[in-house]
Amino acid sequence: MDAVRCNRRLNAELLRRFERSTVxxxxxxxxxxxxxxxxxxxxxxxxxxxxxxMKAYPGFPSPKIQAFxxxxxxxxxxxxxxxxxxxxxxxxxNVGTYLDSPFHRNAKGLDLSQIPLESxxxxxxxxxxxxPSANRSIKIDCDESELRGRAVxxxxxxxxxxxxxxxxxxxxxxxxxxxxLLVRSKAKLVGVDFWNIDDVENKARPAHTxxxxxxxxxxxxxxxxxxxxxxxxxxxAVPPRIVNGASFPVRAFAEI
Length: 256
Ligand SMILES: [Zn+2]
Hints:
Elements: H1 2-20, H2 23-31, E1 43-45, E2 64-69, H3 71-74, E3 86-90, E4 98-100, E5 123-129, E6 137-138, H4 144-147, E7 151-155, E8 173-174, H5 176-184, E9 189-192, H6 206-213, E10 217-220, E11 234-236, E12 247-249, E13 253-255
Parallel strand pairs: 5-7, 6-8, 7-9, 9-10
Antiparallel strand pairs: 1-13, 2-3, 4-10, 4-12, 5-11, 11-13
Helix pairs in contact: 5-6
The structure holds zinc ion.
């Protein structure tokens, strides 16, 4: 009850400050958004940006982001009174930070339009420090109870290589024991900050097979996981609702 009252006071104070502030203050606050003065709710962006011509997944085409209708060409539609930009994006679903639906692996699995929001929005999160062994596998050392119903995010720092060829070297991956643990503990979602949750040299793809087979969705190519505490955050990775959609980019973020 005290916490609720305290939050109400905080919101009232924020509103008073906003009303007293000048436009110049607000512009200056916008510029300083990385260092908010009062920080009751905080979002941490965990996604890579998607840009025209960037490298997608090895062997897949780069995204093309362009105008379908340019501002200039649109003017004649509005008798010169207005102009719009209609964008067109052409890409495979596996670009940037993306979510894999069960349908990505199994023809009868849930597609992007069928994933319950409970699995991808406001999921209580846990960030695990992944220490790859000599063969690049990561063993998750946790109790089942810590992972049950959670978004389990495995951080290794591999995302620091993003934008370089080194990013696409064989990355860490989840060990068989870690996959067992995640399935047993009924995690809701598993996210990693590298480019494949499986060993790219293992064509059986056991992590995709077993996690997606248990309706545990996967998010790959996460960024900035080092900014997260171990617990005490909610995770969001919501793709558009595409029928027969397999994988698609998400704006993944955490709410602290
Ligand atoms: Zn995948």
